[in-house]
Batch of 3 targets.
Target 1
Amino acid sequence: MSPTVQAGAQRLDRIPPYLFAEIDRKVQEKKRAGIDVISLGIGDPDLPTPKRVVEVLQEAASDPANHRYPSYFGLAELREAIARWYGERSGVSLDPASEILPTLGSKDGISHVPLALVDPGDVVLAPDPGYTVYVTGAVMAGADPYAMPLRIENGWLPDLDAIPDEVASRSRLMWLNYPNNPTAAVADREFLERAVAFCREHGIVLCHDAPYSEIAFDGYRPLSLFEIPGAKEVGLEFHSLSKTYNMTGWRIGWVCGRADLIGLIGRLKTNIDSGIFQAVQWAAIEALNGGEEETRAACDTYARRHRLVADTLNELGWSIKPPRATFYVWAPVPEGYDSIGFAGHVLDEVGVNITPGVGFGTYGEGYFRLSVTAPDDRLHEAMTRMRKLKL
Ligand SMILES: Cc1ncc(COP(=O)(O)O)c(C=O)c1O
């Protein structure tokens, strides 16, 4: 008898299929069938990376000094630029040598942090609905994810008092994400203070995922976790250049916070990847040093698009206020549909791709998410098509 090859690791069976990959497959099928699908499904800016950043990459890519293995811990100049950015933006002081670790996009940091900080059987607290990687990262580390429901009546903030003591005592890590994907909610200082106090009381590492911190409107400025006194003793914050500078394809972000935790994540990552292409790091330095003007202009565009979507959906019977931050619209599905059914209906009837809320977790059921990161003419066309949708 010939030996059989094992089909795959059991841990993969615990991970649901990555929602966006699944949706992409369906969209590609439609496209192959000749249908002009407008994708509002993924939060991927349509606006280009600032030209000055691309130019630095072009020059740095030609320099042989950048062709070799980069440092595992990022260029000192990049860590210094991040520290400066934090100081100017939030008045927060970070030590570039020990409190900042550049990552291959924030997803790299988010997916790997449980492997560095959590043991099998520990609990990882994750918002539901939420960015799915909080749960899959925990599962890959053998931990037990515990859902913290986000509900409209709580302003899409988790109810920390509802976490049973038995769960809190087994928890090693809590994920928060404000401005929030998918709900577009924001967190006030009072909530962040309570979260810091909760994590300090129970000895939990508070991981604040903040890739949308700069995508905010009408003068609103989201708080950094480290503006909360005591946060650095329990906290890590994850940032990304993806959304701030339209750099999703470049794969660069960072995690920062308590030095010993950063050291552990760095130690893990030396065994997983070999750092970030140095030319990309020089371009990131240029991005961070260049001020806010381009990001504010992009936000003006998103704010204008948010108004268009809210006006259109409100004409159709929704009651939506444009959000204070993020490029997402989070809205209830019409009566008679579940979220997958409604997303399928919209795709089949008018060729517009939106994301079913349940893809972000059980508590996302009943909602859908739409991203305003499509070019203006495509978003207009999508809204014209939505007006023709039979509900
Ligand atoms: C909440 C949240 N965190 C993290 C990420 C990952 O971003 P990146 O890996 O591009 O930095 C995303 C991407 O959509 C996100 O929505």
Target 2
Amino acid sequence: MTLTRRTFLSTAAVAAAGYFAPEPLFGQMELPQQPEMVLKARTNAATAKITVQKLRGNVSVLMGSGGNIAVLPGPQGKVLVDSGISTSQPQIKEALDAISADPIEHLINTHWHYDHKDGNLWMHAAGATIIANEKTRRRLNSPQFIPLFNATFPAEPADSLPTLLFTENHLLNINGTTLHLEHYAPAHTDTDISVHFTDADVLHTGDTWFNGVYPFIDYATGGNIDGMINATKRNLAAGTMSTIVVPGHGPVGNKQQLSASLDMLTAIREKVADLKRQGKTIDEAVSAKPTAAFDDKWGKGFTTPEMFTRFAYQGV
Ligand SMILES: [Zn+2]
């Protein structure tokens, strides 16, 4: 047989797809290929130290693996908000067992990002029903591409998907108390919710609040600066003046700190909008350093002053 270009290509494709691909071991579930940043996070999280901070009314927070994890134990089983990175399972389990012997009955995902839901699979296997906004399930159920990271996050296996879904608001009555779940859209993504433990007056904001640093805003999956500002206002309106506020990332805080974030977001949004109105390009806006007055306090996190200027520019 003469190898035409066509047969050569199809032979090569068969070889690439079949012959050279490692055979999955019998009985081993084949999981989709994750982007480099997820693999790196899993490597780091395998040895991460988990700290537990008691908040109020039996609510605690686990910190150290992905986004902050809130926990409410009780006779109807534990309720968790977010599931951290999967490879921290032994440390997270140890921390949860030290709080109480109750099994994990409910897991709430604040949004679709991997650092808040990578532990879904093991927590579901441990018995948890997963609750989220319906858009979180939609995003997790199909591949998501984030150009900023040049990364495609594959569709999740069925067992890690939320199954108890809501659109705007959901009340969860459990362990003698009520949790109020509220969808904010658009905000950091289009999937974000907050969770208010009403009796303890503890609010988990998911990634609609980064305490002490510029926020990451995921425009690729429906986030924008004005949505972040609105979400911050809604976080401020929830609960009371003494609400304990658990951010998606950073230390546990309060309404005063949340209010300082709102001032920062609003001021930078206005400065960047002015530059855009003057006809400045995105690079010229970055060169004008509209965040300069805030950088000492807010500019030392994952989102750099330049990144945050670009996030603001895109949305005004
Ligand atoms: Zn996020």
Target 3
Amino acid sequence: MDWADELAQKAVGPQVVNDSKTPSGTVHVGSLRGPVILDVITRALRAQGIQTTLLYGVDDLDPMDAQALLTPDAIEREMGRPLAHVPDPAGDCHASYARHFGGIFIDVFAGLGINPDRYYWMSDIYPTGAMDPYIRLALDGAALVREIYRRVANVQHPERWHPLSVICPTCGKVGTTMVTDWDGERVFFECRPDLVTWARGCGSSGWISPFGGAAKLPWNLEWAAQWSLLGVTIEPCGKDLSTAGGSRDRSDAIAREVFGREPPLNVPYEFLNIGGRKMSTSKGRGAAAHSIAEVIPPEQLRFLFLRPRPNQAIEFDPEGTDAIPRLFDEFDRFAAATAGREVKGELSPGYEATFRYSLLDPVADVAAEAAAFRPAFAHLALLLQVPGVDVTTRIEAEKGSLLTDRELAILDERVAAARAWLDGYAPDAARLAVQRDALPAAADALGPEQRRFMADLSAAVRRGSPLGGDAWQAAIFASAATDALPARRAFEGIYLAFLGRTSGPRAGWLLASLDQAFVLARLDEAAGFVASAAADGGPA
Ligand SMILES: [Zn+2]
Ligand SMILES: [Zn+2]
């Protein structure tokens, strides 16, 4: 990947790469783009010999502001409280709502080969007092902060507004409080019933010390304070935060003017659009990362995010389409090219780095991985639907030798993915119902030229057995050309003779997945039918 290696070449001195996330609910697949980019930057820096720390934060003092995952009786009580203080909705498997959902995304990251050196939880950091110096700077600089919001984002806070959210000592909510005064040691706070629409404060107010975990900074200030506290030098962020006057601009200005430190390098990245819909964490729609992970193994998922540059949006529509088989095919093409084999079609420059960074193991033997035998996904999806096929034996026959342990692991992973794809994503055309017992009735529609093609294909296969789907595909094209039959009509003939319909999966792979003796018998039957039918003066 040119961009990450370029970035790494420009870096000077030790680097701290950081990102953080509010653990508000299930992780959607689109929200994995950032962590994958973070991981690749870290790998690229380390490959340059640069000492690099990868951090990932959980912003778990953020208020609960989405009631979708709360039971009705919990909404009034929990909305507005810090996520770290809301009970685990899944029962008592974790200490809090935040730990439950934070745990899910940590597991997803680990499954993708992303292993930060440290996860930090803001609910752990505030009580240590480590944030107190930034709270003090923010309160002392309240007028400046208000001016920054006005100047950078055109947001007008009231004159008495101070950049701090107290955790209400009465009701425990953080999303409902406003600080209106600061005497150098204590703040005056109000817990307002009407501050936000999604949570109701209890109405209490008073003077309180804001330190040691009693309060948290608002998001833009907390973000900038994290950079100072942790020494962050690189922090990519999504395009929605990177717009002019947006969150990143505000935090950059606060970092410089309030906390006196240059903000980290930004690498803005675009969204993943699933079926044309923008995927973001807060909208609560689209595919959950853990369910996509069942059908797209980690290396192909990393590849999905890494093939385009960060500033390019990704369009991905896995339901009822061939998008997932195509993703595997592209991965395999990048692997083949990396192994030095000739591949069809254009390849983006840096394909070798894209392949390398898609691998799960940062220190994998790239050449060995690239050279490993990988059965085509669509071919596996067909084989799995043919009764009585020993997939491993069949794939070893196509490879021409036994699979290595690594290749067996790849095969197992792909078989599981192909099954999940057939169960939940595949278009009807990919579903195979080979009519094994007899020539389907629909084959009556075969024309004489299609039957002649069947006979020629049968003869060609008897002269030399094609090995694998590509070879079968080539044999189909060759026989069709011999008979001057358009390829489309040849494919249609095969679908009629084997499936009893006029469309289907790639015909070469279909025939390759079936027992050759059966294929020959069926071709002969379909071809022979013309002779007897012709003798009768036409198909009956
Ligand atoms: Zn739990
Ligand atoms: Zn309150």
